[in-house]
Amino acid sequence: AQSVTQPDIHITVSEGASLELRCNYSYGATPYLFWYVQSPGQGLQLLLKYFSGDTLVQGIKGFEAEFKRSQSSFNLRKPSVHWSDAAEYFCAVGAGGGNKLTFGTGTQLKVEL
Amino acid sequence: GAVVSQHPSWVICKSGTSVKIECRSLDFQATTMFWYRQFPKQSLMLMATSNEGSKATYEQGVEKDKFLINHASLTLSTLTVTSAHPEDSSFYICSASGKLAGGSDTQYFGPGTRLTVL
Question: Which residues of chain B are within 8 Å of residue A48 when distances are taken between CB atoms?
Fold first, then answer.
């Protein structure tokens, strides 16, 4: 069975500081990995995805993530956080983009001005 | 591109009534749509997978007679909560699987529907 673990429920960073959100997955085959962001009362917006190839993927809003097979991780990073980045972030894994996804429990990001 | 809409965005209904939620892919065709449920401050839980022209596949523990799903066209799926009760109050989110030009299959999410059952 596939599963996703996001160890950090809440993270607070200062505006301008760097950010790393952790994601570990369990999957029997080559995983398709995603990061989504959700603002309060809104749906999910895709930040980036990894299917194959270069293990460092670039996304929207200045986010990037690195796939590390040996660590079963897909951590999300941003070099300089903006106050508008405050939101809930979900990591997800699936058999493909068109297949059902399993989500982590999410990490709530708070940005201090 | 890749816009998914949901209607209504919020609905309040009385206990025992039925509520229909629509999910539309506006600028692409989606053979597969997914319905998720999200409780406050929790993750998304997949309820069912909806394939155009066939019966939906429900996840374990989801009552298919209570949550009726219809995927009548490549751009529209509906979720009907029948005989709604207060415990059905939740945030329902749909997603549509699509492949944009030059891209790979990706799920695009709707903005969600807040259901409150009184």
Answer: none
